[in-house]
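Annex B. Sample input.
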Amino acid sequence: MREWFYNNQAAWQGLVDWVRQHHRAPHPAQGSSAGVRLFKGRANLQMAALQQYNDPAAQARNGLSAAYRLRKMQELRSRSVADISGEPDPDRIDLQDFKFVPGDIVTVLDRKRDEAEQWRVVAVLDEMISLQSVAPDHAGKNSARW
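Annex B, continued. Sample output.
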């Protein structure tokens, strides 16, 4: 896909221009003559959209998202996008490979302290796991951590 964007810049140049001009989504209450409709004519959806549209935090998020999209398009134009062809494809990964099984030894990294500790999986409940430290001198050796 990256190569297609590199080789066909004229085909998508209009996207860059559009992103430069539109930092926010169109106003939800625009009439049908504007040619833009975000929602069907249900009042509750339009009211929620108006509240979100007028939220100052949403405006900041929209501006940040627009700047990010513009920067990524400029990277495509300058041919400086990272080659991720060697990365694993998330659509082709079997999620069963990432399931924990009681008895597994895992490493827990504490990013704030830049420390890593080894733990044993004690129990697995859907998306929660119970861990027990394998370090003999760990203060909480006999306590479980969820």
